[in-house]
Amino acid sequence: MKKKKSIKLDKGTVYQKIENGNYYFRYQIEGQRKAVGLNTKNQKDAIEKAEAMIPLIKASSSEIVAAHVQYAKGWTHKQDRLELSRLWDVYTNHPDRVRPKSQKVWNTYKAYLDEFISWLRDAYPDIQYMDEIRDIDKHGQKLNTSAVSEYAEYLKKQNLAVDTHNKKIARPAHIFQTLSKYLIAPSPWDNKKLRRSHKEESCITEHRQPFPPDKEQEIFDAVKPESSLKLLNKAEIEVLFHILKYTGQRQKDCVNLSWNKISMDRHRLWVTQEKTGKDVSIPIAEELYDMLKKAEGWKINDKVLPKSAERYARKAKDGTDTGVNLINKQLLNVIKHVGLEPSVSVQGRSKKVTIYGAHSFRHGFASHCAETGVPRAVCASILGADTNIIDNYYVHIGEDAQDKAIQAIRRKPNIVSTEERISKALALIDSCKDKPEIILQIEKVLRGK
């Protein structure tokens, strides 16, 4: 077996940590042992690199030591610099840029970056280049201040939801990571302490909810053709509400449902979920079947809801999905019409928390499945990968099972089985001389006649 190679130099030692691995250079500066990776497996090259560093090590001044650290970190090469004004344009042309399906999500990447740069210009007007945004200096020393850390503290004071805060950190972080060639130090966005914990919002009890049963019925009454509520493409909205309720799918997938994904003969439809890419197969309930038969009467293309799908797909000049809001407003008008408030104010947030919306049908679907004993896996196969919703409504199923498990373990002697109770009841009936008609009927039930 070959030994790991170690070569003693005038000042320090060149060595390998593992056989046939890269070489390292170990030395001492002012009584402290240091080690630097030489990034080569070639012994000759390793010795040359180490010997080039020896004059730096022999010097004692802090400037020379700092120069050595700079060399060791690989920062002595000519650094490409990227102006903040060009940062977004360079990112949009990078092959590793994010590629979200929604233009809205893409726009938030730019908006969150612009928000940070705008804050930076006020807080640090002298910073002009991307490599100046760091939390260690070019000599490897920790800085007392960090622009990114200060920005995170600034965000914490803006009454943002935890998810929103973390996205405002995560999306610029991805941009900096993608353009890391322009950094001279590790990205300051990688610090986990910049993010907020969801535990901070554990006190918030207001969350998305299914519609109350009485209000759900009022909602369906409100979208009937004969109701007084005025809605654009009202007939399509009525069908849309039935699709939302009886499939449990997201609004976008329901609005864009195609006839080629529906088999009326088999009473089944298929959805490829836009968000997850998952294919789900769903039986068609009779109420939904009747609505789809109604929709066949206006069939002009492959869309079940042609006019609503066209509105939903509308975009602004900058690519923003403006059509989504057009459909959302219609749904919210119906919800408000029946006396429900779609969102409520919550302390600690600048924006209201949404309680009722199109997603409430999805919550209602999970709730109905749990209450009627549908296995969790079956519900998940229809809803897709939305485990949070499923967990919310199936937790009590688990609690019931746990209670039964504890009772089974305890095996209380006073717990009498159903068969024993029936036997005792029949014995008591047999002991009666005169049996009234009601007793005779009870006896027949107990004997299974």
Number of DSSP helical runs: 17
CATH topology of the largest domain: hpI Integrase, Chain A
Strand content: 5-15%
Count of domain modules: 4
Secondary-structure element order, N to C: EEEEHHHHHHHHHEEEHHHEEHHHHH
Largest sheet: 4 strands, antiparallel
Determine and state the CATH class of the largest domain.
Mainly Alpha
In the CATH hierarchy, what is the architecture of the largest domain at level 2?
Orthogonal Bundle
**Order of adjacent strands in the largest pleated sheet:** 1-2-3-4
Structural class: alpha+beta
- End-to-end CA span: 86 Å
Q: pLDDT under 50 segments (min length 5)?
A: none
Helicity level, as a percent range?
A: 40-55%
Q: What's the count of strands?
A: 9
What general form does the structure show?
extended
Looking at CATH, the homologous superfamily of the largest domain is: Intergrase catalytic core
Mean pLDDT: 84
Rounded radius of gyration (Å): 34 Å
